[in-house]
Amino acid sequence: MNDLLDVRQALGEPELPSPATQAAARAALLEHAAAARASLSRPWPAGARRRRRAGWLAGGIGLTAAAAVTAAALVTTSPPRPDGRGNHRNTSAEPSSRLSARQILLAAAITAAAQPARTGAYWYLKETGPGPAAATTTQSWYTHNGSTYTLLPPRHVVFLASPDAGFDVGASALTYRQIQRLPTTAAALTAWITRSFAHPVGPSGPAGVPRARQGPPPRSELGGQVAMSLSDLLYQVPAPPAIRAAAFRALAALPDVTRLGQAHGDVTLRISVAAPPANKFPSGKVPPRANEIRLVISTSTLALHAVTNYEGTTTILAARWTSTRPPAVRP
Amino acid sequence: MAAVMRAPTAGDTDAAIIRRSGLEPECFAAIFDRYYPQIHRYAARRLGHSLADDVAAETFLIAFARRDAYDVSWPSCRAWLYGITSHLISGHHRAEQRRYRAMARVGTDTVSDGLADQVARRVDAGTRRAALMTALAGIAQGDRDVLLLVACADLNSEETGQALGIPAGTARSRLHRARRQIRAALGEAARPVNGKDYLL
């Protein structure tokens, strides 16, 4: 099923404009052209030519040797591995003022790795935003066979999404099984996601086709897309603990990771992926924070509480396995 | 004035024509001839015929007025024009939503008060379309712009980004979100879970 085609067909094939309408529009344009010719006094401004894409992010987001060494060294200084499943209280050794952003991410990786693999039939995700909570809070239950139940605002209707849609990882759409086989080292995971933008894989079927049609993002945006995809892996899809941990470590390995501040038991980290693009679009508009993502992480549990990218902030209210059935499904 | 006056030919890129139109403004008519029908069709899909007449004509007047700001490193100006059209359409977003809601009612046997009621009925092409239209009316304006540029104007995400003045990555994630809403409202919405009513 191709939803894009559905949209197009549902909107119908409008009649062509009448020749009179078209002629009138053309005449109006020529009137403006004549007025412009009349007032032509200076030559075509050469400076109007804009360079697009000033080659930001030339270095990509690769793990630099220095960062790799630092990261390796930091693992030993991270808070102690929690002994026992689900008991993360002892990681809380206040990852507060003493730890750097990178150390916090590495500690979060250790905590994530220690989480139980799968403790229920559903991966349950409750998130809000970007946008007003009432309009953007969704709850989803994902099963391992790909069925998805989603409660959508504002009417809280439950929808069952198609099992063949797949989970988004990078530009690819993966089955639950494929997700379990993603690389578990940071560098390999980053490489896998980066490659997906050039060669997206999808379930055989129409669901995979439109994704491929979109084409890869421009080089300048690839780093940001990869970072965003890594942050998606932290909560959006039912990835096993080792892969979730790898995603944390991959984010820690990005070149520019800083702490912004701490409030209400959360610490905010900023991951900058490049300098902002300059004069990139004819409109000259670049959205604020186009070149960074922010993660809000609990200082007590090291769980991810929110992700901000240039689309806005998504607050993660729950991302866990559950046996509780979605309200739609009756035993 | 200009010594050589030759009409633009099919071999000229849009960028070349637009650049030329700096000194030879009438050249811009070639841009109109190339794109007016498809711009009109796009506007008509979103706003209906009569508003589309205005929006399509206005698109070319605005494009002409801004031709000196056109980035000539883009050979085709198609995305640029669609961007202007999208901006004009956003000024009519209430009319657009009304239109989709009206289209949702056409084709369902009775006028029901919402999506929840509709999907609960026997699913046929009409209710499916109704669900889609209702969903379309409810999608955020920026997301809808991206969705419809991809679905109806055949722009890819980079072109969509260029059209709307946003990074391709933003276009991509908006498209993803819009499609998720559409998919949710579509066939998937209509399939009963375990053969039972799954509406709350």
What does it look like?
The complex is a heterodimer of chains A (331) and B (200). Helix content of chain A is 33%, strand content 21%. Chain A is α+β, with helices and mostly antiparallel strands and 331 residues long. Chain A has one domain. Chain A has a nine-stranded antiparallel sheet with strand order 4-3-2-1-11-10-9-8-7. Chain A has a two-stranded antiparallel sheet with strand order 5-6. In chain A, strand 9 (292-298) and strand 10 form a beta hairpin. Chain B has two domains: 13-91, Rna Polymerase Sigma Factor, Chain: A, CATH 1.10.1740; 93-200, Winged helix-like DNA-binding domain superfamily/Winged helix DNA-binding domain (Arc Repressor Mutant, subunit A, Orthogonal Bundle).
Q: In what order do the strands lie side by side in the largest sheet of chain A?
A: 4-3-2-1-11-10-9-8-7
End-to-end C-alpha gap of chain A: 29 Å
Global mean pLDDT of chain A: 72
Strand content of chain A: 15-25%
Work out the count of structural domains of chain B.
2
How many individual helices of chain A? 10
Instruction: Please state the second-level CATH architecture of the largest domain in chain B.
Output: Orthogonal Bundle
What's the CATH class label of the largest domain in chain B?
Mainly Alpha
The general outline of chain B is elongated
Please report the number of helical segments of chain B: 11
Summarize the structure.
Chain A has helices spanning 3-11, 19-38, 65-77, 101-113, 133-136, 176-180, 186-198, 208-213, 219-233, 241-252; strands spanning 122-128, 138-143, 148-152, 157-161, 167-169, 172-174, 256-263, 266-272, 292-298, 304-309, 312-322. Chain A is α+β, with helices and mostly antiparallel strands.
